[in-house]
Amino acid sequence: MATTLKQSQNFIGGEWVDATSGETFESTSPADGELMGTFPKSGADDVDRAVAAAKEAYEDWRLVPAPKRGEILYRFAQVLAERKDEVTDLMTHEMGKVAAEAGGDVQEAIDMSYYMGGEGRRLSGQTTPSELRDKFNMSVRMPIGVVGAITPWNFPIAIPSWKIAPALVAGNTVVFKPATDTPALGQRFVELLDEAGVPKGVVNIVHGGGGAVGHRLVRHPDVPVITLTGSRDTGVTVMRNGAENLKRIHLELGGKNAIIVLDDADLDLAVDGIVWSAFGTSGQRCTAASRVIVHEKVVGELSSRLVAVVEKLTLGPGWEDDTDVGPVINQSALDKIHSYTEIGVSEGAKLLTGGEIAAEGDLGKGFYYRPTIFGDVESAMRVAQEEIFGPTTVLIPVKDADEAIRVSNGVRFGLSSSIFTQDVNRAFRAMRDLEAGITYINAGTIGAEVHLPFGGTKDTGNGHREAGQAALDVYTEWKSVYVDYSGTLQRAQIDNA
Ligand code: NAD
Question: Are residues 269 and 124 in the same domain?
């Protein structure tokens, strides 16, 4: 373990401080139980101090020219790139994902920071002709104020960057609350922002639980924007709690993503896509393929090839070279995942492989679950409807492409989708008809790039998007500006009628 952060603090107004209560909580590794550090168990007072600091800092930050704000993000990307190995290693220990994926998580934050740094020289609005003579019209993006950024543990560096980079380049200041399972990574993120030259008070971190720190941020009258990535239930609570102050609430929630494999698919490619999408990050991705919808003509062949590959996957700590699948995040995740195995069996699904906690040897020190595949699954079963968030996927046989699309759409979520087919007509129909924010053709359900919008339809969110130019819509408000240089009173809709 390269870096262990002991006794961390909150970062408020450019100072490292303890929680007002003096209380702390511990972060431990899901891979082997190692203590990662202690963190302030903050409460409403700490949030209030951070919001006050962010509000004060906003008065100057909003006036810093956007290209200069972008340059700081550019520097942050460089600093993060220099520390990529160290942060990657920390992630394998604190969050548990395997090193290649942890490196990808960090790289995504680097890419996002460069991308949003570039937005500092764009942040484009529109200019339009006026309906009146000697008048000029334009719309400009305005920052909103203090943004409350509340993040989950599964992308502990990438997700904070998706929120904080666009918020900053647009001229907002931030109070960041990372997940309590990955506080050391949240801390490192903010330390590196500080090192990159973000001014005092512009980014603040307050550690602690959702019910205390997150709740206060959502209720705080001086935080006009809340951006949350988490579960559907948390999203509903946050939206309800933010309603009283008419907050802008940006929600990125759960998924029940499906890969469709048609009878003309390249099956080897499909198997590779399924293994990567279902078992990468131990299935703990919002875009994980927790359903595979297969044409009945190829379901037998696909399932035997898939099971053969999956049974060769090696479980272990993410930092070891030969590990394919790391631990899941904590004991309650392990219990939840196993309870879905029991549910699947009781619903009559056929357990093809896995279905058990792996505890032999050193695995017993962490939270490991064997990659699990159910066959003979029907779309209405709970294992085919509910987000399990672990290394479990289900095979649902269908008769044709139309049924495949119907089954894919037959869940409450709509984040990512995928189809394997060689037929261009079927591919284009799927692009049109799949009810999801993301569709992949001949690739699995994971692998988003930072310059395209990221988010989902239906219960996956509330219509906003992260990443790409679309992210700026969350962190800015439009102002329309009319400049009349005629020297006379010109009345729109009247004098030109
Ligand atoms: P979670 O909902 O338990 O927690 C997310 C964050 O919200 C945490 O920081 C938590 O402390 C905070 N929180 C909890 N209750 C709160 C409250 N009442 N008020 C304010 N904040 C509160 O989710 P998790 O277990 O950390 O993450 C897994 C979930 O996140 C899954 O459902 C997954 O699909 C989803 N996710 C979605 C995306 C996406 O982009 N759509 C990406 C990653 C993860």
Answer: no
